[in-house]
Amino acid sequence: MHLAVPMLAASDVHPSASVLVWIVGTAVLVARTAPVSSRHDRGLDPLGTVLLVGASVALLVGIVQGSRVASKTR
After folding, report:
1. Cα(38)–Cα(40) distance, integer angstroms
2. Are 54 and 27 in the same domain?
3. What are the tens digits of pLDDT across the range 1-13?
4. pLDDT tens for residues 17-40?
5. 39 within some domain
């Protein structure tokens, strides 16, 4: 039973989908409850942004691909 994705409970949902729904839900909750503060005058760090996004995508792809490989070897 997939509590995070009730519409898709009858289908074969990948476990990482529930985790992704939980992460997005938590981010939305934090964004709504965090107090508004003044913005900094500093600009974005493009190299740091690319590295952070790239590492996050690589981690998620690794989790999904790793679980697919593990499920095929069983």
Report:
1. 7
2. no
3. 444 444 444 456 5
4. 777 788 888 888 888 888 877 776
5. no
Whose structure tokens read 């913005």?
39
Tell me the whole-structure pTM to 2 decimals.
0.41
Q: 8 near 2, Cβ under 8 Å?
A: yes
User: Domain containing 25: what range?
Assistant: 1-34
Higher-scoring residue by pLDDT: 11, 66 = 66
Please tell me the number of Cα atoms within 13 Å of 1 on its side-chain side. Answer: 1
What's the structural domain count of the chain?
Answer: 2
